[in-house]
Amino acid sequence: MTTLAPPPSQPVRQAQETGASRADGSPPVDRDYPATRVPRSARRPTLSLVIVIAGFFFYTPTMVTGGGVAASFAFGPYLGLAVTAAAILAVYIGLLAVASSRTGLTTVLLSRLVLGRWGGKWASIILGGTQIGWYAITVGILGNLVSAAFGWSVAWPVVIVGGILMATTAYLGFKGIEVISWISIPLMLLLCGIVLAQSLDHIGGWDGLLAVEGSGEMSAGLAITLMVGTFVSGGTQIGNWSRFDRGTPARVFTLTALAVIVVQFGMLFFGGVGAAAYGEPDFVNLLMSMGLAGAAVLLLVANLWTTNDNAAYAFGVAGAELFERKSKSPFIIAGVAIGIVLALTGVADAMTGFLVLVGVVIPPLGGVLIGTFLTAWRGRDPGLDLEDQPRLKVPGVASYLAGAAVAVLCNLLSWGSPAIVGIIVATACAAALSWTGRTRDLASHA
Q1: Which helix (H) or strand (E) holds 272?
Q2: Looking at CB atoms within 10 Å, which of 219, 261, 390, 412 has the fewest?
Q3: What are the angstrom distances between the C-alpha of 89 and each of 228, 233, 258, 273, 419?
Q4: At 362, is the secondary structure helix, strand, or coil?
Q5: CA 62/CA 230 separation, integer angstroms
């Protein structure tokens, strides 16, 4: 008969939950639990999650993408495409939020349970790697914004200093991210309101805005792929925050989806308004031309900060899974250093190509997690041991490869939206393999 160990004493439990040194002298536990399930005692109210998500999604590059897409369409059809992209992200991210809330696991740890240990490493590489890319793009935009506002001939000092400062709240963990989000969101709403008012005044009101005709240079499928791509990487990692949620599944899904669709559509809308009214798709250049340089610096720095600390947090927990460490801190430091170097090379200028890549390889991963959670796990925590997983799990890996292959094909043929097709195919394959019971592992346990 197996003898169960007694529960830890109160001091030990407190040390485990706060990150303090434990009674036995072993290293402290990271209070954000990057390599384990979040215990119920460490869960937070859903409002905290919604604020962090909103701060994350108030993202200036989304407005830049919206401006670039809006230039190709009449404003009415553009709004329809923006709503479609936001709704897709809302459902996708909402379901992933529920999966992590039920299990208490980050997205990369969920991937380990679905794809196996080696498959989980792939998830850590693509999710952590793309977030480092986003960090670099965001820091580059910050450097361009501040240097243009003050008439400086070089931007690299801003890139270096800004890149370091933005990582500080991520280093502090969930609470630090929440605090900066409460500051940033009202400021960004103020800036968006100013942009809308000046744009309508410039173009002659709503009638003038709706009369704008686009260039027609972009297909609807590519437009949706780009707009979904602005946050499909970050959105796939919603589990990094929703795992702290103590709400019911229905509450988690509803509030997460609403936060996503409102904020994502808002960012696309305001970016599109400026492009349509002034003929300037780049949101940063638009602010300069509107004479808002001074206000824009303050407001956008806060906005970019909330996004980049989330990105740093994401590649921190991805690194902890990839190298099987209990702390995210060293990986935040390393990722920030790489991101700053990339930003100094001008990686922000390659954002469109980056979005297409992200929209092809990442959405199928989220589709596999959703399909497995809803069917094989039936919407519950499967209770699987994180350490005792096979190297590869055939159903999950096969479903991901199928979704990614179809997404790549769609991209090469310019057919439909690769991001959406990838999600649908991967989800359907994962569900089908779960229902048929084909769950053999490709390799034995290590």
Answers
A1: helix 249-278
A2: 412
A3: 7, 11, 10, 21, 10
A4: coil
A5: 6
